[in-house]
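[audit] Reproducing an earlier prediction to check determinism. Same input, same settings, fresh worker. If the tokens differ from the archived copy the diff job will pick it up downstream; this log only records the rerun itself.
[audit] input (162 residues):
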Amino acid sequence: MALAKTHDLVNLTALPLFLYLIPKEFYLPFAAGYVFGTFFLSPDIDLPGSRPSKRWSVLKCIWTPYQTLSRHRGISHLPLIGSFLRLIYLICALVFLYFTLLGVVATLDRGLGYVLSSFNPFELLHSFFTSGASLYVVAGIVAADVVHVIFDMLWSIFRRVI
């Protein structure tokens, strides 16, 4: 397995090639998804001690169930399936954290709980996923995964040959 620094460098080096293939008005959403996919939603998030896992800092605990259920280089390393699985997992985990926080805050301070309950995470998700840019954000995440997995495969072949 290649080092995380190497994965990061290879992924960032490949980004301009992808940008060449997409419309200019979607550079920013694609690049944002690609960078987020490279540094935070990498297939290596299934390893508790990995760099992508550590980058979540105090929120890395949300990945513990995922890491427990997923073996390394398992479903997480299937580019399209793994990308969508991690993205759906992340959305569910953040919605769960929001409602947990809402419950705790509402119990401690009704006024603040009322203010916090005025935010609807499902409306935010709906507006994001119905925008044209969301397709390019998700495409960026998937592209970052594809580069990661191809590099893993090439690295494994290289290690066997040496």
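[audit] rerun output stored. Observation attached for the diff report: Residues 79-108 form the longest helix (30 residues).
[audit] end
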